[in-house]
Structure formats: C-alpha cells, structure tokens
C-alpha cells in the first residue's frame, strides 16, 4: 500500500469510528419504529464509507475485499442492520472494481456513478427461487434497444435511497437454452412500484428491505451487464463476484454482531446475583462458565476463516470452481456459529434478555436472520456436497 493510500485509509478509519458509535446510539430507535437508518446513511456517505471499494481513479479509496471487510465488521459491531444494508451497495462497487482491475472495463460506468455519490442496491430476492442470481422467476423479454423485466423482487435493502437497482430476469424464449439477463434499472424508470413490506419483521428492520414489483420495466442495452446461461453453468467472474462480495460481507456482519453479543454477556454476567449459591455473582456458576467458553470458541472459529477467504480473494488465488464451495462454506460457518452462540447467550442472560429495554433481544432477533440469507442452509449443503463429489449442480431433478 502506497503512502497516499495509507494516509487516506487512516483518515477514513479514524473519521468513521465516531460515526460508528453514533450509529450504535440510533440503532434501537430505528428498530423500535421500523425506520430506515437515514441519519446513519447520511453520515457514513459523507465520511466516504460508500466509496471505500471504489478505485482512487474514480474518487474512492481503492480498498479491496480484505480491507473492506474489516470496516464492515466494525460497523456491524455497532449497528448490524446499517452494515447489512450498505453491504448491498459495497458489494457492487467491490466486485466491479475487481473486474476493472483485471481488465474488464465494461462496467466502468458503475464505478464512475458510485464515485459521484450514486447508490446501488440489489434486486435478486424472489419468492419461490431458492437459488437467486442463477435462476429467476422474473421474466426478461428482449425488445428493441434493451429488455423488459416483469416480476416481484423481495428483500430490497436500501429501498429509500438507491439510484440503481441491480436486477436479473430469465429469458425463456429458447426453452432449451434459457438465459439469465442481468442489468440495472434507474430510479426514474417507469412501470414499477415499491411495496411497503418491511414493517414489524423479525429483525434487521432498519434495512427497509421492501418489495419492488416490476411491471415491464425497460432497461436499455447500455445497462444490461450480463447474459449468461441459467443455472450454475452461467457462473462467470461477474456472477462469482456477486456471491463472493455479498456472502463474505454477510458473514462479517454477523461476526461483528456476535462479537457485540459476547461483550454484552461478559459485561452483564458479573452483575447477575446468585442468592442460592452464596457466591458474588453468576459468573462463578460452572454452567455459565461453560456456556461463556463455548460462545468464545464459536467466535474464534469464524474470524480467521473469514480473514483467510478475504485475503485469498484479494490476492487472486486460483481456486477455480472450488471458490463456490469455499464462499458458501465460509458464510454458512459464520452465520450458524453466530446463531448458536447468540442462542446460548439468551440462556445466560435469562429472563432479562427478552425485555426490550435490556437491548439484548434486538441482537437475538437480528442474529437469527443470518441463516436465511442467501445462501441458506439447504442450498449451501447441496452446493458443498455436490461440489466435493463432482456432481452436476444443474442436474434435474435436484
């Protein structure tokens, strides 16, 4: 890392720390009132968080995956929903920057727009589609000058603020060779509506991941970025980059949340009194000690794993098709380990943990969502097993 970048990175990280703490102070309010994290967004955008992965040539900081994940993890420790939603923007800029550095300049416009402050979000979630990105229930119809997309998108984090929504749809005009069409729709596009579907969800409420219904939205050819075969055979550097940046981002977010939960437990347990045991606090209870140790052991297995994957990606390790197995495994290990330790933390916290004013139940609810993020537990184990056994992932019936 050159001196200029080092100085810029130092300034960025030092400036962000206070903002992260500000985000922490607002998190409970956003959750309780089902509000988008607007103040967090404004402060983080002004501080440069949204352009950390954008190359310096386009006005960003040029951080690669290993460095970006450090900041993602730190923000998640203070405000996991804020970090989760912003990951949807950062992963677009990160993967396109990777492609740009490798010589693929076809999506340079995304880096240019992001450098100017435009916000990108993801429109890949669909009901009934358990393998998002690789297949789609959304129809992509070729028309003059571009494609029309018709379908129902779910989990659209950053709904209130995005300028471009990354979407995909399936072109079945050739039934023997269906194609998945990837593109970006602009905010001022016609023929879509946003449905307010995110009130009172279980967790991660501040992301405002509302639904977006596409009713023949036109996306011009200049904003169509990929046309690939449906299924796993359509994975190229762009598709793999979506999985890498999104899933490793998810993993670090839940890891940061897990670190926060452990700190809450370590702070709370010594204050819990034990009348019957005639001891200063519940910290002396052997069962509590065992659970605290187990929580720590769960977390200790996550950090080095994620750091290794991010470092290998940044260095361009040539794992080939094995990258999919590695990415899915890292995400699965992270979110399932965090959930086990947070669930155990609820046992340790006892009845006080379920009371909203304690602050803990919010982390409990947020942590549970990690397992249902793509890739969920079912598809993860299918991909890992079939990949290791050398089976055709597109073989039907599954």
What does this protein look like?
The structure is a single chain. The protein has helices spanning 3-33, 38-47, 65-102, 108-115, 237-268, 286-300, 303-314, 322-349, 360-368, 377-389; strands at residues 120-123, 139-143, 146-156, 164-171, 179-186, 192-195, 210-220, 224-229. By secondary structure, the chain is an alpha+beta fold. The chain has 3 domains: 3-115, Acyl-CoA dehydrogenase/oxidase, N-terminal domain (Butyryl-Coa Dehydrogenase, subunit A, domain 1); 120-231, Butyryl-CoA Dehydrogenase, subunit A, domain 2 (Beta Barrel), CATH 2.40.110; 234-389, Up-down Bundle (Butyryl-CoA Dehydrogenase, subunit A, domain 3). The protein has a 4-stranded mixed β-sheet with strand order 1-4-5-8, covered by helices on one side. It has a 4-stranded antiparallel β-sheet with strand order 2-3-7-6, with no helix packed on it. The chain is globular and about 80 Å long. The mean pLDDT is 94. Keywords: FAD, Flavoprotein, Membrane, Oxidoreductase, Transmembrane, Transmembrane helix. This is Acyl-CoA dehydrogenase family protein. Its cofactor is FAD.
